[in-house]
Inverse folding.
């Protein structure tokens, strides 16, 4: 494309770091938009982006989170489109981004399916992933979409509870609307204004969702549920102790629901969870007890 | 005075002089004051008045209009409220064009929105984030209510898209002069004449220039090129600072002749 500059939006900061990394590798200029609130709670990633040479622009408008960072990135893009490519961090935005990001992220499910078959000889019964914009979920689901017997479950952020209105569960609690160039389930008020959202996890704190998820929801190929901040935190701690893996707060939502499913399925059940990131970035958000807690 | 309302198309077509179209945000700084300022603008010599409906995520707008929308929303402006503002100002006799993002229209229900806008005396609607390719059935409802559907061409628009954008437009074609978002600029970019020539190859409708326009020099540059110039952020900024925007309008009108 002959462009020397890339831009990105980021919530948790993972996509921002990825964009900054590739820009550093190829000698491109990189600007990442991030909401004030997200810069605070994911500050480790802000430092990583800057160390990689990217400019991190603080977005102070609106709710100061992912939605606003995305809006600012789009404004930069339309202004600088001749010199700049916008690397969107999820399966959202105007066409062809949702399709393009899915086609790149599907490596997750393609490899997982192959590995699962080679280890177990059979497909999983259920595949679970967290859903913010929806890229890791679409990434793992795509390979299994035609495997009719495989149940697919997306887990959204219920925040303080869907009924409180302080959440980010677009499919569970929203209705169709247009945000950032695509028509998809959206958390909006009665007048079509996009609602402020809440989730303890920056990457799920987005009022929209990728349009393909809306389609999979309406065709019932994927079931969507929502998990609260509290339950995600519990899963964060449990996974750390049981597996020695500190999951990011985003996939901790999927892990919590996986725990519920495992109880139902019992021994022998085949469950595949997409652990879409590490929790190092969340150390400041997770309340660490003053004394170590007793083992579960 | 007292004749039937001039059509939007006729009002915006240049007649030797460049026409001026003003933009304001419904509900900015509050509903009552926005009606007052709208009526003043309507009587100031503008050819038409664009009224913005505030939206939480206005992607095409820079800081001035973003802020005006935010203030309007904080003070309780709604789609219904904006239609009331439009109706109050439409009584002054200058054609009114609503500028709104697509989601408030979808949420209100496009058929209902079109009927209510027509009822309010609105002449046309601009939806900056509704691409021509996706414009039916919303544009269908607007047309059915006898509202003009104004679409936008940008400096980056390919000629074949410019053709279909012009084809679907009525009232006028909106030519975005800058690659970017709203906000007053010092200078307007090169390539404007080429953009207008491209658009005029595909339409005989009047062509209005907008985004960035704020100074008498801009008006002089547009004369003979555009039919009309839309002034938005510069006016909204004056309103935000409590200044009378008609002062700027009168100054710009002088440069239109």
């Amino acid at each position: 494309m002959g462009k020397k500059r890339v831009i990105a939006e980021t919530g948790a900061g993972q996509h921002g770091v990825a964009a900054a990394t590739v820009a550093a590798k190829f000698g491109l200029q990189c600007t990442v938009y991030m909401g004030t609130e997200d810069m605070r709670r994911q500050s480790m990633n802000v430092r990583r982006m800057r160390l990689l040479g990217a400019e991190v622009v603080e977005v102070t408008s609106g709710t100061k989170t992912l939605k606003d960072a995305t809006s600012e990135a789009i404004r930069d893009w339309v202004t600088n489109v001749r010199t700049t490519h916008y690397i969107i961090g999820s399966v959202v935005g105007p066409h062809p981004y949702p399709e393009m990001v899915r086609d790149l992220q599907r490596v997750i499910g393609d490899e997982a399916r192959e590995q699962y078959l080679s280890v177990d000889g059979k497909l999983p019964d259920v595949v679970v992933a967290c859903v913010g914009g929806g890229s890791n979920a679409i990434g793992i689901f795509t390979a299994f979409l035609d495997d009719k017997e495989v149940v697919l479950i997306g887990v959204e952020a219920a925040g303080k509870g869907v009924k409180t209105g302080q959440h980010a569960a677009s499919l569970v609690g929203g209705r169709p609307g247009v945000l950032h160039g695509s028509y998809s389930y959206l958390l909006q008020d009665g007048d079509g204004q996009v609602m402020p959202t809440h989730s303890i996890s920056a990457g799920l704190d987005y009022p929209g969702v990728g349009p393909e998820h809306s389609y999979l929801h309406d065709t019932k190929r994927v079931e969507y549920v929502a998990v609260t901040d509290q339950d995600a935190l519990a899963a964060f701690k449990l996974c750390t102790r049981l597996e020695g893996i500190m999951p990011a707060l985003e996939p901790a939502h999927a892990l919590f629901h996986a725990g519920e499913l495992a109880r139902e399925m019992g021994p022998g059940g085949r469950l595949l969870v997409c652990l879409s990131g590490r929790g190092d970035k969340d150390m400041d958000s997770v309340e660490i007890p003053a004394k170590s807690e007793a083992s579960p | 005075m007292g004749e039937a309302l001039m059509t939007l198309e006729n009002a915006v077509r240049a007649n030797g002089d460049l026409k001026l179209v003003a933009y304001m945000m419904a509900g900015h700084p509050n509903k009552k004051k926005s009606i007052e300022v709208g009526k003043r603008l309507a009587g100031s010599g503008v050819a038409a008045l664009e009224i913005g409906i505030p939206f939480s995520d206005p992607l095409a707008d820079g800081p001035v209009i973003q802020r005006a929308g935010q203030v309007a929303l904080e003070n309780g402006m709604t789609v219904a409220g904006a239609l009331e503002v439009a109706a109050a100002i439409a009584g002054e006799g200058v054609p009114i064009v609503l500028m709104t993002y697509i989601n408030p229209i979808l949420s209100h229900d496009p058929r209902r929105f079109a009927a209510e806008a027509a009822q309010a005396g609105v002449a046309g609607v601009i939806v900056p984030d509704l691409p021509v390719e996706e414009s039916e059935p919303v544009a269908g409802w607007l047309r059915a209510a006898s509202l003009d559907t104004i679409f936008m061409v940008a400096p980056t628009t390919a000629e074949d898209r410019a053709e279909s954008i012009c084809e679907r437009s009525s009232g006028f074609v909106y030519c975005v002069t800058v690659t970017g978002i709203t906000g007053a600029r010092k200078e307007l970019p090169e390539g404007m004449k080429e953009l207008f020539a491209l658009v005029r190859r595909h339409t005989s409708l009047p062509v209005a220039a907008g985004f960035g326009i704020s100074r008498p020099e801009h008006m002089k540059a547009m004369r003979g090129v555009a039919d009309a110039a839309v002034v938005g952020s510069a006016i909204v900024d004056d309103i935000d600072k409590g200044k009378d925007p008609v002062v700027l309008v009168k100054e710009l009108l002088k440069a239109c002749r």
Remarks:
- Chain B has one domain: 17-254.
- The mean pLDDT of chain B is 94.
- The first helix of chain B runs from residue 8 to 12.
- The interface with chain A takes residues 55-57, 59-60, 62, 66, 70, 73, 78-79, 101-108, 129, 156, 179-181 of chain B (CB under 8 Å).
